[in-house]
From TrEMBL:
Principal place of residence: secreted
Pfam families: Mucin2_WxxW
Gene Ontology CC: one annotated term: extracellular region
Organism encoding this protein: Dissostichus mawsoni (Antarctic cod)
UniProt keyword annotations, A-Z: Glycoprotein, Secreted, Signal
UniProt protein name: WxxW domain-containing protein
Keyword Secreted (UniProt): yes
Domain of life: Eukaryota
Domain WxxW positions: 2-43, 44-130, 140-192
Entry's localization field: Secreted
């Protein structure tokens, strides 16, 4: 039996403790068995898109994060956390924030220099908890940008990213190919590089 998370990580590499993990009984992962109390959440990496010395503060808005980190940020986060680049939680810095606690899942995180009594804002990074379907991965539409020629049919990721930068995530985890008539590539008998 094999198992993986919705984001594609092998169950054996998650660090989770499994109550049951066998072909005979299936998989059972209990939050109560985990050291932190919960199994994997759908979270982004720590992200930093702004600097407090530019523009009057440190603004980590959802809109800017989506532009700066395409494919790695969800549009509708469930929660947002902020910490300094040194790892100090935002609530322990003494900075004042635009909204209560500075965490707004609609806008993002903002610390304005003019609101600080003694200094400019710290340089913050944020991490978003996203709906579980974001970590399941998404699928693009089918692309066909090349036709078979003397050399073959080339549908390269580099070419597709240049042509469709807003439609392809920065770090795809898999790729599928099929003929225009719908036959999966691995069933055509063709050889691939």
């Amino acid at each position: 039996m094999e198992a993986r998370t919705r984001s594609g990580v092998s169950a054996l590499h998650t660090g989770n403790h499994f109550h049951t993990f066998s072909a005979a009984e299936g998989l059972l992962c209990l939050n109560s068995d985990q050291e932190g109390g919960m199994s994997e959440q759908c979270r982004t990496q720590w992200l930093n898109s702004d600097d407090p010395s530019q523009g009057g503060g440190d603004v980590e808005s959802i809109a800017q994060l989506l532009k700066t980190f395409p494919g790695r940020v969800c549009r509708n986060p469930l929660s947002i956390e902020a910490e300094t680049l040194r790892g100090v939680s935002a609530e322990h810095t003494g900075d004042s924030f635009l909204s209560y606690a500075g965490y707004d899942t609609t806008f993002g995180f903002a610390c304005m220099n003019e609101k600080q009594s003694r200094k400019q804002c710290e340089d913050y990074q944020v991490i978003l908890t996203c709906p579980s379907d974001f970590c399941q991965g998404c699928r693009t539409r089918w692309f066909d940008e090349d036709d078979p020629s003397e050399r073959g049919d080339f549908e390269t990721l580099i070419q597709l990213k240049m042509m469709f930068p807003d439609e392809i995530c920065s770090e795809p985890i898999s790729i599928e190919a099929k003929t225009l008539s719908g036959v999966p590539a691995n069933q055509t008998g063709d050889l691939f590089q």
